[in-house]
Amino acid sequence: QVQLVESGGGLVQAGDSLRLSCSASGGTFSNYNVGWFRQAPGKEREFVAAIAAISSATRYADSVKGRFTVSRDNAKWTVFLQMSSLKPEDTAVYLCPTGRTRIGIPAGVQDAYDDWGQGTQVTVSP
């Protein structure tokens, strides 16, 4: 089991940038795919971005393409989500789950992941 701690959230204004971090412990981090999801009050949890274990291939939700960048530093057991041009609709709790590749289950669905952190709050004011 992997333990995950998200950090870097805060209150910013529209157009600002933030960098979220996801620090892991336990397991073999480099073997795990890592995702970013977010959940706003009263809304379903939604996929934001993901980065693969070996290739570090990335994918993004359409709503954040061109604004968010996911990266990983396996030596530091950390994944980052660089968020730019933030909008009020980006306001949510951001979570970073990890999981091994499962055939037939894409990275953008929650079932692709086993372990989840508690999340970090991002609030974007107009």
Kindly summarize this structure in a few lines.
The chain has 126 residues and is an all-beta fold. Helix content is 0%, strand content 45%. Strands 2, 4, 5, 6, 9, 10 and 11 form a seven-stranded mixed sheet that branches.
Key terms:
11 strands; about 45% strand; seven-stranded mixed sheet; about 130 residues
Describe this structure in words.
It is a single chain. The chain has 126 residues and is an all-beta fold. Helices cover 0% and strands 45% of the residues. The protein contains no helices and eleven strands. The protein has strands at 3-7, 10-13, 18-25, 33-39, 46-51, 58-60, 68-73, 78-83, 92-95, 98-99, 120-125. Strands 2, 4, 5, 6, 9, 10 and 11 form a seven-stranded mixed sheet that branches. A four-stranded antiparallel sheet has the order 1-3-8-7, with no helix packed on it. It is globular. The N and C termini lie far apart (39 Å). The model has no long low-confidence stretch (mean pLDDT 95).
Tally of helical runs: 0
The SS-based structural class is: mainly beta
Question: Overall 3D geometry?
Answer: globular
- Give the distance, in angstroms, between the N- and C-terminal Cα atoms: 39 Å
Would you count the extended β strands for me? 11
Provide the succession of SSEs: EEEEEEEEEEE
Q: Give helix % range.
A: under 10%
Taking Cα atoms only, what radius of gyration do you get, to the nearest Å? 14 Å
Task: Give the low-pLDDT segments.
Answer: none
